[in-house]
Structures are given as C-alpha cells and as structure tokens.
Write a structure and sequence with these properties.
Layout (H helix, E strand, L loop, with lengths): L2 H22 L3 E6 L2 E6 H49 L11 H11 L15 H14 L16 H13 L4 H7 L6 H11 L4 H7 L5 H12 L9 H10 L4 H11 L5 H13 L4 H14 L3 H9 L7 H11 L6 H7 L1
Helix pairs in contact: 1-2, 2-3, 2-4, 5-7, 6-7, 11-13, 12-13
Length: 340
Amino acid sequence: MGIKRYIVFTLIFLLGIGIYAYSLLGENYTLEVYSFSVTLPIAVWVILPAILLFIASIFHMMYYSFKEYLYQRALKKDFELFKGAYGRKILGEDSEVSYKTDSYKFIGKALKTLKFDTLPQDIDLEDESLKEFSQNVAKIEAGEVVELKKYKLSSTNPLIKKVKFNRLNADAKYASTILKECADECDDLCFAAYMKFLSYASFDEIKKLGFKPTRETFRLMMERYLDEEDKFDMPLESIEDLLLQFKATRDDYLELAYEIKAKLNPDAWMALFEKLYNSQEQHAEAADAYLYVLYELQMIDKIREILDNSEEGEYVKFKTLLFLRDHGKNVNSGLFLRFS
C-alpha cells in the first residue's frame, strides 16, 4: 500500500471511529496531571492513542521509504560504476572502485579475478561505450591499428603493445619510433622493431643503436649486403667484428665464405679470410672457411701445407676433398663441405 493511500484510509477510519464514539458519548473529559489539565471530548480521547500511533507509523514508513530510496540510488550509482569497471576490464585494466552496496562489492571483487582473452561479438551489451570497447579490442586482435589515447590506459597495458605490433606490421618505418623508446633490447616488441629496422636502415644507423648482434640479425644484414639491388653497404672490418661478437661457429664462417664469394673479388675474398684465419680469437672457427677459399682459388700447395701440419682428426673433409681431387674425382667443394 502506498503511503498516500495509507494516510487517506487511516484518516477516514479514525474519523469514523471518532464520530461513532461521539454519538455514544458526547461529554467532555478532563485529564489532570499535577497542575496541568486538558479537557477534550471523550470521542477525541478514544481516538487519541490511534492518532499518536498513526503519526508514529507515518514517520516509520517515511524513514524506511527514504532508506529504500537511498539504497536504490546507491544501486544505480554502483551499476554505473560497474559498467565503467567492466569497460576498463575489457580493455585489460582493473579499476579501483568503491561500491556502496554489498552485492556490487562482491561483483567488483569477482570482476578483478576475470581475464578476457576473447570477447564474443554475438552478445549485445546494450551499452554504446561497452560496445565500442569490445569492438576496438576485436579490431586490435584482428591486427588493426586503433587509437587508444582517449582511454588513458597504463603504459604496461597489453593492448598498447599489441597496437604497436599492428602498426609495426603495417609500417616498417614505425620501427624507428619504437626503438627510441626501447630500454630493453630483449623485449619482444623492441626485437621485432629492430628486425624491421634492419630491413631498411643503413649500417651506420644500425650500429648507432648498439644492439648486441645475433646470428639471426647478422644473417639479415648479410642478405641485404649480398643483394645487388639493395644499396646497403657494410665494411669488411664490421663483418669481422660482428662474427666475433655473436660468437660465430665454424659453420657460420664457412657459410659466409660460400655466400660472399660472389660479392668480393678474389683478392679481397682471400684477404678477408686469411685475416680471420690469422686472428688469434677467430683462428679455430675460421679455419674451414679459409681452407675452402684456398681450394676455390686453387691454392692447393698452401692447403697441403696446413693439412700436413694438422692433427690426425683435423680437417677430415678437406683431406677427403684433396684425396678425391688427386684421384680425378671432381666434387663441388661448396656442397661437399656444407652438407656432407
């Protein structure tokens, strides 16, 4: 029953009792308490307790109505706060929200334990902001570039990193921007940007970054160096340093000797690997490559001199190669040494 109807019906009821009581007892009655006295019709005295109870009930109902109003308002505010927190969760961030109601306090705590790997697109969230969040996340996962600045996400948010990856895949030149912000070259984004940077930057620009070379990055630079259409230039001294820095193996040196043959003239080719072979730090690893260069340049006497002074188990492939040559067997030295 609404409070208005309650008041109307109660007043009618009290009025009816008062009229009935007055019709039976029309006299007055005086109540005396010490020096204080009140004279009222008996009918009024009859309904007076009911009137006081009625007034008390009105205050009681008003109190709980107001309390319910505050609760409903708190629920509404908590719902709006929850939508905001849910939206941030879609974007991969937790929100420190202070809820007023116990139910939303529990829901808020439960929300922090959830992680949305994928968001179903067939569910209508019936809220434009949440739809926008969900759609943008789906676009990012699909490889699109989405502007996230307006959401004011933390710098460690995974979505920011994904957007940078997407932008890097769409525009290799964006690598320069990423590398300016890189503090850790082992970071996957920084490494990906570095690999993109290697595909278009000059050797001097690459060198300025100071990234530690790896076999993978060396191979990429060598591909550009050996590509006649690419204007990428790299001093031979730098090739030597790079080999030393990433601790190239015997196979790496042999592969380099095989590939760089087409790039250098015979004298430069010979000089490079002779220098590597005579280097104290690179002698052991560069030996096979140097012997291969000598064999290709038909400097057989020099090869025999090195092999004759070697241990029994050393340079087995080259000893086999010379044996075959001496017995009239023509063998592709590059294939034999690299794949046998």
